[in-house]
Design goal:
Layout lengths: L13 H10 L5 E5 L10 E5 L1 H7 L1 H4 L8 E3 L6 H11 L11 H13 L3 H20 L8 H12 L3
Length: 159
């Protein structure tokens, strides 16, 4: 009887792989992304510094300390969005980069999942600027499903 063919996993996005390569040696906390037990998705460990994420995320701040902490992300966020979230949590003296409307929508949803209201505030400010820029240029603003979700997240948090 022939052995079953090994499961093939999608190659990681270049930005995700670059993030992993850059942060792997200094990590003390990992987010486990992907669907555990799924046939078509692999589980990916995204390295980070717990203190950076805990500074923004009440969810991570309230976790007990462990020797080798791994936190499974049990929602439908893709790895590139998780990397954007982890990068937004890292100290940056220049502030957050300007995100696209789609990234604002995805980041708002994940910031809500991680209970990171200060990050949602920054994203709310960026969304307002995008809307004002669209209004000043007399261009139509394209609303996506992610942006609608972001507005509900922001409203839920009182923005």
């Amino acid at each position: 009887m022939a052995e079953p063919a090994p499961k093939k996993h999608k190659a990681l996005d270049a930005s995700v792989q670059a993030y992993i390569d850059t942060n792997e040696g200094t990590a003390n906390f990992w987010l486990l992304a992907g669907a555990t037990g799924s046939d078509d998705l692999q589980q990916i460990k995204l390295p980070t510094c717990r203190a950076f994420v805990a500074f923004h995320s009440k969810l991570i701040r309230d976790l007990p300390d462990e020797e080798d902490p791994e936190f499974p992300v049990l929602c439908d966020h893709d790895t590139s969005t998780l990397v954007l979230f982890l990068q937004a949590c890292q100290p940056n003296f220049c502030g957050l980069p300007e995100y696209s409307a789609g990234d604002i929508g995805k980041l708002s949803k994940i910031a809500h999942y991680f209970d990171a209201p200060t990050l949602v505030d920054c994203l709310f400010d960026q969304l307002i600027k995008l809307l004002q820029k669209s209004d000043n240029n007399n261009t139509a603003f394209t609303w996506t499903s992610e942006l609608y979700e972001a507005v509900f997240v922001m409203k839920d948090l009182g923005r």
